[in-house]
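Intended use. Records like the one below are meant for learning the mapping from a protein sequence to its folded structure. Do not use them to infer anything beyond what is encoded.
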Amino acid sequence: MSKAPYSAGLTEVGDGLHAYLQPPGAWGLSNAGLVSGDGASLLVDTLYDRPRTESLLEAIARVAPGAPVGTVVNTHANGDHCWGNGVLPPDTEIIASTRGAAEMEELPPAQLAKLVNASKASLKFGAPVNLLLRLLGTLGPAHFKDIPAAAPFVVHAFGAYDFASVTLRTPTRTFDESLTLDVGGRAVELVEVGPAHTQGDVLVHVPDSKTVFTGDILFADAHPILWAGPFANWIAACDRILAWEPEVVVPGHGPLATAQHVRECRDYLAYVLAESKKRHAAGMSAEDAARDIALDGFSHWSESERIVANVHMAYAEITRTPPPDAIPLFAAMAAYWLEHR
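Structure written out for the chain above:
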C-alpha cells in the first residue's frame, strides 16, 4: 500500500507542480495534474463531469492565480480524463495523441448516461424492465440483454456522475510518438505509449523535477484494466517510466506513487498474461481462468473484478480474435464483483 498522503484536492508535489487527487480512486475517480511555469500552466487531464471539473479549476485558480492554464493534455480517451474539457475557456489548447483523439469520438457521454439510467431502472423496477431489456437484446442492440446482469455494478461504478452535464469537446491539437512543450520556460515532454490501456495513452514527463503524470498507465494500489492492449505495450510503457528514474509519480487513479508501484504494475501484467496462457492451453474458459488465477501478491489492490476483463483481453491476444464489447465485459465483471465484494 502507498504510504503517501492521500487527501482530496490539490497536493503540492514539487516546485510549481500539483496533483489533484480523488480518493479512493475507484471507477471514474481519476487524478489530474498541474504544471506551472513563469506566467503559464498546463493541466494534465480534466475530470468525468462538469461539477468535478469546475471544482478542479477553482482549486487551480487559488494556487496558481498568476499562471493561467493555457494548455490541457488529455492522457487518453476515457471520459474520466477528458469529459471535463467542455468546462475549459474557449481559447484553451487541448492536446492528445492522434489515436487518443480519435477514440474520444467512440463513446459519447449520452450513451453512458443511457446505460446508467437503464441500469438504475433495472434495479428499481426489477423483472418487467429486465424482461424488456432482454427482448430488446434479441430484437435490437445486442448489449441490452446484458444490462440486468451488469446493472448493480454499473450503478456502483458510475451512478454518482452527472453525465448529462457533459459536453464532448475534442482536442484542438494532436501528435504522434512525442511532443515537447514549453510551459512558462520549463520543458514538458509528452510521450505516446499506446495502444495499451487505451488506443492512444500518453505519459507526461517533467524532466526538471523528475516527475511523471502517467494517466491510466498506472493505477496505484488498484488493478489496472486493459481496454486495448497488447500487454507488451503496457509493460514497455512501465519500463519507459522507470528509465526516467522518477522521484514523483502521479497515477491516473489512486494515491501518489513511486517507481515501486510502476514495477508492481509491470509485474502484474506479465503475471496475468503468463497465467492466462497456461489456462488457455489447458482448455479453461476465460471466466474460469479469471477465478482460478491467484491474486495473493496483489490482494491489497482494489477493483479486483478487473481481472475478468484482463483475462478476456489476454485470451483475445492469444487467439488473435477481437475482445468482447464493453457491456458484456461489465456484465462479467459484475458477476465477479458480486461474488467477491
